[in-house]
Records
---
Amino acid sequence: MRIIKDLEEMQMYSFKTRCRGKTIGFVPTMGCLHEGHLSLVEAAKKKADVVVVSIFVNPIQFGPSEDYKEYPRPLATDKGLLEHFDIDVLFLPEANKITPDNFSSYIEVDKLSKKMCGRARPAYFRGVTTIVAKFFNIVCPDFTFFGEKDYQQQIIIKKMVKDLGFAIKIITLPTVREFDGLAMSSRNQYLSVKEREQAIILYKALCLARQEIESGEKNDHKILLRVRSLIGSVPNIRLDYVVFADPETLDEVKTLRGKILVALAAYIGKARLIDNLIVNAK
Amino acid sequence: MRIIKDLEEMQMYSFKTRCRGKTIGFVPTMGCLHEGHLSLVEAAKKKADVVVVSIFVNPIQFGPSEDYKEYPRPLATDKGLLEHFDIDVLFLPEANKITPDNFSSYIEVDKLSKKMCGRARPAYFRGVTTIVAKFFNIVCPDFTFFGEKDYQQQIIIKKMVKDLGFAIKIITLPTVREFDGLAMSSRNQYLSVKEREQAIILYKALCLARQEIESGEKNDHKILLRVRSLIGSVPNIRLDYVVFADPETLDEVKTLRGKILVALAAYIGKARLIDNLIVNAK
C-alpha cells in the first residue's frame, strides 16, 4: 500500500494509471473505518484495477457548533485495516493543502441540498460537494463508492457529477448494520453504553414505517405519528426529522405509492445519527 | 478541423490525446470571434500539441434582463476563421446537454465574484465558473487561454482552478484593441456608428488614469473625478463603475503604489462594455 500525501503526486499517479489502461476505484472517507467503509473497499477491489482510499476529515462540511475537532481519527488502526485489504493507494492529504486559509470556491447543488439534513446543517452538503469534487480532480477515478446510509449525500453527488460533466460513475452500496440493526457510523463511538442501547430505536422506527407502508397503510400522517411516538418513548433522543420522500428528487411524498425513501435524523447524547430505508408501497 | 458536439466523444478524444503524451490547449469562447479570440488561438497553437476551441453561448451567465437571445452567433464565419487557423477540434455542444432543464449544480468563487462586475451582474461569475468547470471536465485541457479584457473573469477562474485542484494552467493574454484603442468585444457589434465613436472615451479614460497615476499623482479621488468627468462629457454613456484595485485580490486600493488595476464598465446604447489597464504607480 502506497501512501500519498502530495496532491500533484496523486494526480500524476492517477494519470499514469489510467494511461496504462487501468481503471481506478475510489473510496473517499473521513477515516475511523468500520465495516460500512470496508464493504465499499471490497466493492472497489472487485470493480476496478486499482483502488485508492482517501482519509480526510473535511473541515468545511462541519458547522461551527459541530464535531470537527472531536471527530475520531484513529489513523494507525485505519492504516492497518487498509493494509489488510491490500489497497493500492491511501491518499492522505493535509488540511492546509485541501482547504488553505483563503479557500473560497464552493460547489452547491441547489434544491437537493436544502432538504432533509440540509435544514439542520445548512453548509454541510456544500462542504461535501466542494471537497468531493476537489478529490475527483486529484484522484481522477473511473468509479467512486458511497454508502446508502448517507442517502442524501450520494444522491447529491450523483447530481453534481451529472450536471458538471465529471466522467465518473458513482456506485452506492447498501448500509451495513450492527448485529441489532443500528446503521454503522463513525459517530456511534460518541454513544455511551446506555445511549448505544437506546439508539436501536431509530432502526426499529424505520422498520415500523416499512411494515406499515408495505402492508398497505396509505395514511402517511398516521404512520409518521406512530414513528414519532415510538422514538419519543425513549428518553434522551431528540428527533430532527423523519420523512417519506421520493428516492430521486427527495421531495416529500404524501401519496404512498411505489418506491419510497423513509429517512430520519436524531440527536442522541453528543451524536447526530441518520438512517434510512427504501420501501415498496403497494 | 474536427467538429465534436457530443460530450462523451469530446471526453474520449481528450483522454486518448493526453494518453498519447500530447498536451491540449483549450480556448473557450461564446463565438462571434474577433482578433482577441484569435490571439488566444495562436497562443494555444504555440503552447500545446492539440488545440480545442469551444463555441457556446452560456445561458446561465446572462441575467434575466440581459442579452442572451440577441448575443451574436455568426457560426459559419466563426467556423471559417477556425478552419483557417487550422485548429484540431471545434467543440460545439448543444445547450440542452450543457444546461438541461433540471440543471442545479453551481460553482461560486466567494468574494472575488461580488466585486466590480459582480455588483451589476450578481449571477454572472457563478454562471461562468460553473460552465467553465464543466468544460474543463469534458475537454480535460493542460492549458486554457483567456483574454485580459475580462480581467475579473480570469482572476476568478484562476482562483477556482487552484481551490478545486484542477490540473490546468490558465494563461492570460493581453487585450487586443481596435485601431483607436477600443477593446475588442463581440458586444461592440451592438453599437451604432455614433456610439462606436463615443465608445473610445472608455479607453481614453483609462489612459488618463494611467497617465496621472504613473506621473505620481497620489490623490485617487482627484483622478477618479477627472475620469468620471471625462466619461460624463459624452452623452449616451452611463458609467457603471471605475475602480483602482489590487490586481490579485481585486480589493479597491486607496494608496496608489505598485501595480494597480484600473477597471471600468459602462453602458452605451444596448451594450455593456468593460475595459481595464494594469498601471505602475511610482
Note: The first helix of chain B runs from residue 7 to 19.
---
Amino acid sequence: MEELNILNLLIILVAAWLGGSISKKLGYPAILGELVIGIILGPALVGLLETSEMLSVLAEVGIILLMVHIGIEINFRDLGKASWPGLLAAAGGFIVPFGLGYYTIIYFGGTDMAALFVAIAVGVTSLATKSRILVDLKLLNTRIAYVLMAGALISDTLALIIFAGIISFVDAGNIDTVGLLWVAGKAILFFIFTAVAGIYLLPLLGKYLAKLGTKSRTLHFTLILIIVFGFAELAELAGLHSILGAFMAGLFIRDGVFNRQISKEINEVFHDISIGFLAPIFFVTAGFNVTLDVFQTDLNMLIAVTVVAMAGKILGTALFYLPSGYGWREGIAVGTGMNGRGAVEIIIAGIGLQMGIITAEIFSILVFMAIFTTLSVPVLLTWTTNWLKKRGELVHQQSRSGYIILGANPLGLYLAKHLNSEGKVTVIDANKDFIQAAKQAGIKYVYGNVLKEETMEEAEAMEKGTFIGLTANSEINLLAAQLANDSFYMPEKIVLMAPSETGADVESLDRIDASSMFANKIMLGPWIYKVTSGDFEEKSETASEEISTREWIKTHKSENDSILPLLIINAEGVKRPFHYHETIHPEEKIVYLQ
Amino acid sequence: MEELNILNLLIILVAAWLGGSISKKLGYPAILGELVIGIILGPALVGLLETSEMLSVLAEVGIILLMVHIGIEINFRDLGKASWPGLLAAAGGFIVPFGLGYYTIIYFGGTDMAALFVAIAVGVTSLATKSRILVDLKLLNTRIAYVLMAGALISDTLALIIFAGIISFVDAGNIDTVGLLWVAGKAILFFIFTAVAGIYLLPLLGKYLAKLGTKSRTLHFTLILIIVFGFAELAELAGLHSILGAFMAGLFIRDGVFNRQISKEINEVFHDISIGFLAPIFFVTAGFNVTLDVFQTDLNMLIAVTVVAMAGKILGTALFYLPSGYGWREGIAVGTGMNGRGAVEIIIAGIGLQMGIITAEIFSILVFMAIFTTLSVPVLLTWTTNWLKKRGELVHQQSRSGYIILGANPLGLYLAKHLNSEGKVTVIDANKDFIQAAKQAGIKYVYGNVLKEETMEEAEAMEKGTFIGLTANSEINLLAAQLANDSFYMPEKIVLMAPSETGADVESLDRIDASSMFANKIMLGPWIYKVTSGDFEEKSETASEEISTREWIKTHKSENDSILPLLIINAEGVKRPFHYHETIHPEEKIVYLQ
C-alpha cells in the first residue's frame, strides 16, 4: 500500500475546478479550462505538477466512468428520431475533415496509423456546452439547434465506431487476410455480443432486481459497475479499448432496464463521479503531456491541422447539408456550431499517445486544435446565426407538439376541445365519469393516476410539448408538472393554481420553469359548475397592442372573478392556452368565459 | 499513462459483491464477506489475485471517501443526546480491551507501538450491521438498542482520537520534551483548526453557494471533495493520517451547512462511491495481506488476542455499565452487542501494516479477530437478550416521543387534545382560523406550509416520534409523511387516506412504512362537520381479546360510515391513535366517535 500523494491530488482538483469554473463563466465548456490549466501548471510552463501513477489510475477510471455517462446520455429514441438533416450534417462534418486530416499528416510524413488517429480527432464533434451555448444565443427551438443536437449525438457514436475499427488493427500490423478477418471478426463479435447482452440480458437483471424489490441505489450502482468493467474487459479481449466497452454499457443503462427513478439517479452518480471528480484529473493531466515547442518546431503542422479541422468541418457540413434543401447558409451555421472538439477527442488522442501511435508533438497539436476550435464556436456561431437572422432565414421549429391535460372535468374538456383542433390532446383523469365524457367528445384519454409514470407514458408524454394541470388540487397539478418536467422533459408546463393556503407556491413553479394557467389564481369549482350548467358565455377580445397576460389580467381587474381567460388565438387561427408566461401580440384574440 | 488492469478490477468487484451479498444474507455486515473472499482468492489460499499499484490507489481513495461517509453519519446532535449509559458502555468497552490488548502484545514480545495499534484495534466497536441486526432480533425500541447505537457512535470518535494521538508520535521516536510538545501541539492545532473551519468556514461556503442560487449537486460534490482532500492534507502536515482529515471533514458536512436536500444527496453519493465501489476494494485487498501461517506459528497469540478482545469488550462494558443502575446482565448484553469490529479497525490495522508498525502476522491476527468477534455478535446477542427477556428485564424505551398532527381542523384538534395529555403535540396548518383555534385550546402550533422543511423543523420533527397527517387531502398527508420519514427519520407515520380516486395509494404508504389512520379510508368532511356542530358522541368499547385494528373495523362493518375509531387507551390510561398497524390488547379501550 503506497502512500497517496494527497497534496498533488488536492492541487489538481482545485486547479480543475478553477479552470473549469472560469471557462464556464466565459461561456466555454469546463474541459477547455481544465486542459489550459493543465498546460499552465504542468511541465510545459510552470512545472508545479507532473503526472504520477496515482493520477493516471484515477484519470483512467475517470474516463471509463465518463464514457458510461456519455453512453447513458445518448438516447436511442433520440438517435432514431434524429432528422435526415442531422444525419447529413454529422456525416459531412465527419467525413470531410477526416479525409483532409488523414492526408495532412501523411503530407507531413506521419505514419498511416498516426494519420488515422488525427483524422478521427479532427472529425469528432462536440457541441461546445451542449444546450448551454444554444440557450445563450437564444437558439433553442430553431431548426439549427435540432440539427446540431442530432448531429453531435450521431457524431460521437460514429467516431467511436470508427475508432474501434482502427484500434482493432493497431496491434495487427502486417498480417495476412485470415488474420485481418479474425481481427475484424472479433471487433464485430464484441459489438454484437454487447448489443445482445444490453438488449436482452440487462433487462433480465433489471427485472430480477425489481422482483427482489430492492430499491437500493448502491446495489444497482455496484452491479452496473460490474457490467461496465465486464464490457470494458470484453472490449480489451476483442482487441478494442476499454472505453468502448464502457460506452456500450452506458448505451444500455436506461429506463425500461431499471426503474426510471433508479436509472436517472445512477446517471447522476456517474455524472458526479466522472465530471465532478475523476474525469477532470484526466483532462488536467492531459495538459501535462503538452509541449509548447510545437509552436516553434511544428508550427506549420499545427496551423495545417487547425485549419483543416475548422475548414473541413464547416465546409464539409455545409456541403453534405445541401440535399436537405435548407440552403448552404444554414449548412455553414450548422458547421460552425459543430466545430468544437471535446472529451471524446482528447480521450482518443490520449489513447493514441499512450499506445505510442502518435508522438508527443502530434498530441500537443491535437490538444491545441481542440482548444482553438472550441474557442471559435460561440464567435462563429453568433456571426452565422445573426447573418441568417438578418436574412430572415433562421427557421424556428417545435419538435414536440400536442397537449396533455390533466383533469377531464368539464372545464378541462372544454379547453381540450378547443386545443384538439390544433394538434394532439390527451386528457388524463382518475374519475370514470369525466373519462366517459372525454370519450364521448372524441378526445384521447388515459384513465389512471397521473402521479404514476406509466400513466404519463400511456399519454405519450415523451412526444407531447405542453402539460396542463387543471385539477382543483394545485398540489396534484404541480406534482404532475414536476413529473412531466423531470421524467419526460416536457418543455412547457402550465398549472392551475388555486388560491389555497397550503402547499404549492411560486417557487415550485419556478424550479420546473412552469407557468400559472389563466395567469391568475383561480377557484376551479365555480367555473366547473358554470361550464356544466351552461351558465356562461364564450367571448373574445382582440388585442390592439403587445401586452403580457399579466397586464391583460390587470386591465380586467374589476371583472377578475367573473371572467376566465382561456385561450389566445393568433392571426392564423392557431390557439394556445392563456397563461402567466405568455405575451399577446397585436391582432391576436383572447378568448374568455364570462 | 499505464494500462489499467481491468480484469483484476473486475474480478475484485465481483468477488466483493458476492462476498458482501452472501455475508448480508447470513445477517452479517458486507465487510465480513469482503475480507473472507479476499483471504480466499488472495495469496493466502487460491492465489488468483494479488495487490497492485492500481488497486491500492483505488483502495486508499476508497477509505478516504468511506471515512467522510462515516463522519457524515455521526450526527453531533445524536452524540450530544447520547445517554449516560451509552457513554459508560463506550468507555468501558474501549478502555478495558485497550489495556488488555496492549499488555497481551507486550507479553508476546511486540513493540510498544505495535501494542498500541493492537490495543486500538481490540478497543474499537462496530455494530455488526448497525440497525439491521437490531431489527432482526426485534430489539429496536429497547433500551439496549439505544445504548448500543450511542455507544458505537462514541466509540468510533474515541478510537479515531486515540489513533490520532498515537500516530502523531510514530515518527517522533526518541525526542526531547520540546519535540514531544511540538508533536502534540501540531495534532491539537489540527483538530482546533478543522473544527473552527468546519463550524465557521463551511457554513460560509454553504451560504455563498446558496446565494449563488446553484443547486448543482456536482459542483457541491467537487467543492466538498476539495475540502475533504484539503483536510486530509492538513492531517498529513500535522503528522496525522489523511483518514483523520477525511473524518473531520465528514463531521461538518451536514444540514445547516448546505441545504438539507443537497447534504443528503451528497452523503448518498459518498455512500455509493465508497461502499458501492472503492471501499470494498480496500477490504478485499486487505484479505490479500493475511497469512494463514498464524494458525500454526502464532496460534497462541491469535487465541490470546481474540479472547482478550471478546472478554475485554464484554466484561469491560458490563463493568463500566454498573453505575447506570441498569444491572450487570443488561451490561453483558450491551457488551455482546458491541463486540463486533468493522471498517475502522481494519483501516487502522492496514495503516499499521503499511507503516511497518505491526508485522504481517499481527495484521493477520487482527483480521481474524475482526472476523471471529463479528461472527459472535448475533449469536451472543440473541442469547443475552433472550436471557433478559425471560427474566423480564428487557426494557423498552422510546427515545422520540410526541406527535406532529398536520391539520388543525376540528377533528385534528379534537385528536390533539386527547393526545396532548400524554406528551408533546404540535399541530401544523396553513389555515389561520384553525391555527387560532389551536392557540385557544392551548395546543402548540406551527403556521405554515407543511411541505417545507422549515415548517417541520419549527415543529421539532427531529424530536417527535409520530407524524399524523389529517388533512382532507390524502396526497398532502402522504407527501408530508414522506418528508417526515426521509428528512426527519420519524419512526411512526400515520396518514388519513380519503376514498379518493387519484394519487395516494397503499404502495406509497408501504414505501415509507406508514400506516393508515382509522385503519380505513375516511371522508374527512362529514366528520369535521359533525365535530364542529357537536353532532356526535364519544363512546368507548373495551376489547375482550387481542384483536387487530383491521379486524375491529370488520366487526363494526355495518356501522362503518357512522363511527370513527379514534384512539386506543391501555390499562394505564395511555392513549395512542387508532391506525392500521395497531393491535388492540385485551382490556384496552377503543374510543370512537358516533
Note: The first helix of chain B runs from residue 6 to 25.
---
Amino acid sequence: MTADKFSALFNARSVALVGASKDGRKWGFVTLKHLVDGGFGGRIYPVNPSENEILGLKVYKSIDDLPETPDMAVIVVPPPAVPAVIKQCVGKGIKAGIIITAGFAELGGKGVRIQQEIAETARAGGMVFVGPNCNGVMSPWNKQYVQFPSFFVPPGPIAVVAQSGNVMDSLARQVMMYGQGCSVCVASGNEASLHIEDYLEYLADDPHTRVILSYVEGFKDGGRFIEVASKVSKKKPIIVVKAGKTQAGARAAASHTASIAGSDVIFDAVCKQSGIIRAASLDELINIGLGLLRQPLPKGRGLGIVTAGGGWGVLAADACAALGFDVVKLPDDTIEELDKLLPAWWNRGNPVDLVAGVAGDNIFKAIELVMQVPSVDSMMFLSIMPALKVRGFDAPQEPVAREKWGEEITAAVIEAFERLNGIADKYHKPLVVASEHMWSTAVEQAKIGYTLGQHNAVCYHMPHEAATVLDAMVKYNDYLREKAH
Amino acid sequence: MTADKFSALFNARSVALVGASKDGRKWGFVTLKHLVDGGFGGRIYPVNPSENEILGLKVYKSIDDLPETPDMAVIVVPPPAVPAVIKQCVGKGIKAGIIITAGFAELGGKGVRIQQEIAETARAGGMVFVGPNCNGVMSPWNKQYVQFPSFFVPPGPIAVVAQSGNVMDSLARQVMMYGQGCSVCVASGNEASLHIEDYLEYLADDPHTRVILSYVEGFKDGGRFIEVASKVSKKKPIIVVKAGKTQAGARAAASHTASIAGSDVIFDAVCKQSGIIRAASLDELINIGLGLLRQPLPKGRGLGIVTAGGGWGVLAADACAALGFDVVKLPDDTIEELDKLLPAWWNRGNPVDLVAGVAGDNIFKAIELVMQVPSVDSMMFLSIMPALKVRGFDAPQEPVAREKWGEEITAAVIEAFERLNGIADKYHKPLVVASEHMWSTAVEQAKIGYTLGQHNAVCYHMPHEAATVLDAMVKYNDYLREKAH
C-alpha cells in the first residue's frame, strides 16, 4: 500500500460526498453535516443528481462534474448504485474512498459477488477504500470527521481500528471522556479493499500515533496480518479485543461484517507471536491503551503495592498474584525506613497499608521507598484521597461553595498524579493508580477523569483494572526484549 | 442474636461517642460531625474527660456521667483505653457498640489477647459490638451515619456488609452514584463480637433490605456462616466478593482484619451450597445487586439479544455463550414478523441486529417479538440510542441549549427504560440493557446513570457486564427452585 493513498484517506484536502441528502434522517445528510461541523478545512463536494445546494454547499450532479479530482470520496448511495459510483471514481482518478453503504458480503449470496466486483474495479483502477458496511473514519488532526454521531474526538495519540462502527464510536468516545484524543479512528467494515493490517502498517509510521487499539472479528489475510503486526508491535503497542470467541459470537460476526472468526486458541498464539496485547473487553482495551501512553515499561513481575485502604490492598494483591505477579517481600531496611513514616501498628508487609491518619508527603515518601527496592519492577498505589493537598475533606453543601470545592479537589488530584508520575519517571518503573474519589459526586468524578487525561494521567476505577494494565505492560516489554535479541 | 441489640445498633435513639474530639483531623471529631451532619434525630452524647462542648453539643466526662443509658456507643479512643471503655459501657447497661479503634488482632501477639478480653467483657455483659478496626456503620433510614467520608448515602433497598471500611465506602458511594440507596452499611472489621453471619441473619428480616452485597476476607465461624447464608438466600439474594484468593491476597487479608482466607475452591462450594452469588469484583457486585433489585428471574439459559450496534451484538453473544447461555435460534414465524419491522437486509439471526435506520416503536416491537419466543428465558438489549424519542441527535454546542438538550436526552432515556421494564414485567422475563450514551458528555452520562437509578432502572456500561448479571440471575433462580422442592 503506498503512503499517498493513505494520505488521501486521512489527510484529504478535498472530499466528494456521493449520495449527499437534504433529509436530516439520512446518512447522506448527517455525514455531510458532521464533516462541516467538525471544521474540515478542505474543499467539500456534495454529489446528488437531484439537488442544487445542501447546507450552503453547491451540489454536483455527478462525480464527472466535479471541478477537480478530489483526494477522497465518501459513498453513501444505496447498495445497487455502488458499483457504478466506484467506476466513476476510478474514471475521475480518485485514489481513496469510504463506502458507508451496507448490504454486501455480510448478507451472503449476491452481496458477496457485488462486493467482489466493487473491489476488483477499485483495485484495477488504483483506488483503495474503507468498507463497505462501515460508519466512517475520523482523522482529528485533519479535522476530518466522516461519521454518524455528533461528537468530535480531539486530536491525540490513540489510534482506533475497529471491525465495527459502533465499537469504533464507543472507543473514541471513551478516549474523549478520559480527556485524551485520537490520531485516527477507522471503522473498517467488510474490508473488501483495505484490511486491518493495512491500517496497522500505515499507523506504524504515523507520527501522531503512539498506541493502537483494535477490535477484530476476523481476518481476510491471516498470514499477512501476523507479518505486519509483528513488525508494527516493535514500534508501538497494538492492543486487540478479538470477538467471535464462541460459536454464538462467531455466527454473529459472520452476519455482521462477513468475518470468519477462526479459532480462539490460534488467535492467542498469533498474539504471542506478533507481540499483540490481547484485551478481554473494550474497557480493558482503553485501560491498557491509556496506561501504555504514559508509563515506563516494567522489567519483570516484582510488584510493590501501597494502599490507603486495607480492602483494596487485599483485592489488588489477589488480582496481581492471579496474573503471575510476585508481590515481593520488602527488605528489612525498607521496613525500617517505613517505620519512620508510618504509625507503630502498620502491617509491615506488602501491600503497605498506610493506615488511617497517614497523609501528604509521607505517602509519597513511602511510595518512593518501595520504588527503591531492587526486586520491585512496578508499583500500584491505591486510594489517593489522603495524598491530596486540600484544606479538609468536609464537602460544603451550598452549591457555589461546592463547585469551588470540586475544582480544588480536581486541582489536588492533578498535583498528586504529577508527583506520582514524576516518581515513576525517576525510577523508570511504572506506577499505576486505582482509586475511588470518595469526596466527589458522580459529576465531579467525571470531571476529574477528564482533567487527568488532559494532563496525560489516568486513574483506574478498580484495583483489578490496574492489575490488568501492569500485566499488559510486562507482556509488551517481554516481546520487545525478546525481539531485540 | 436478639433483635433488640440490632435495633439498638441500627435504629438507635441515643448514641454516646466515646473519644469525641475538637481536633478536625481526628476520627473523634469527624465521626461526631458526620453523625450531626447526617441529620441524626436522636440524642448524641460526646464523651471526653477534657472537653466541655464540641460542635455545640455538651460533652460528658465519662460514660457514667451520661443522663441515660444510650442505645449505642461509638468508641474512638486509643487502643489501650478500649478495654476500660467496654467495661464502662457494660456497667452502664449499653447493649451495642461500634469500636472504630484499630490495633488489635490484626497486629497479632498482644493485640489478639486484648481483643479477646474486650470480646469476653462485652459477651459477659450482654453487649454486642461492630469491629474493632472498622470505620463505621451507616443506617440511612434512621439518618444515623457513623462514618469517615462526608457523603450520606440515601435510604434504599441495598444492604452492604464488608470486612473492610474502604470497600464499604466504595460500595455505598457506587450505590449512590447509580441513583440508588442503602438500607444498612456495615464495616465489620475484626469481628471480635458480631460476625458477618450475624448481620446476614438480621438483614434477612429487615423490611428495608432487598439485596445484600458483601465483601469477605475470611470467616470466624464457617459452619454457622453456611447455615445462616443458606437460610437467608431463600429470602433475599446475597452477593459476595471473596478476597484472599491467592497467597499474596490471603497474607494481606491476615494483616488487614486478622482474617484467615481459607481455600478458594472450598468457598466456591460454600457459595453453591448456600445460594450465595459470587462476584469477581466490586463492580460486578454492584452490577448484580442493581439487576436483582428490579428484574424478574429467568427460568433458564435461553437468551435473545437485540442490538442497535453490530459489534456490541457480537461481544454480547460471546460473553453470554462463554457463561453457558444458549443464544437461541429464532423460530421462522418470529423471523417473518421481524421482517415486517426491519429493512430487507437485516441479518435474520440472534443477535437481532437492528441495522442503522430502525428506530422508535419498531425497536420495542422487535424486542417484544423476541420476548414471545418460548425458548427465550431472558433478553439483552444493546445500544439504546435509536430507541430514544428525541427531536434529533445533533447536540447543540451553545451551553444553555446544550444543557436543555442533556435534560431532554435524560428524559428520553428514562422513558425508554420504563417501556423496556414494562416489557420485562409483561413477560416475566428479565431484560437487561447495556449501552453507550453516544450523544452525551461524561458529565451528562453521570447524570443519566444517576437518574436511571432514581427510576429503579440500570443501564450497564458494557455487554459483558450485562451478561454477568443475567448469569447471576439464572444461578439464583436455580437455587430458589432447588430449595423449593
Note: Chain A has three domains: 1-133, 153-294, 296-484.
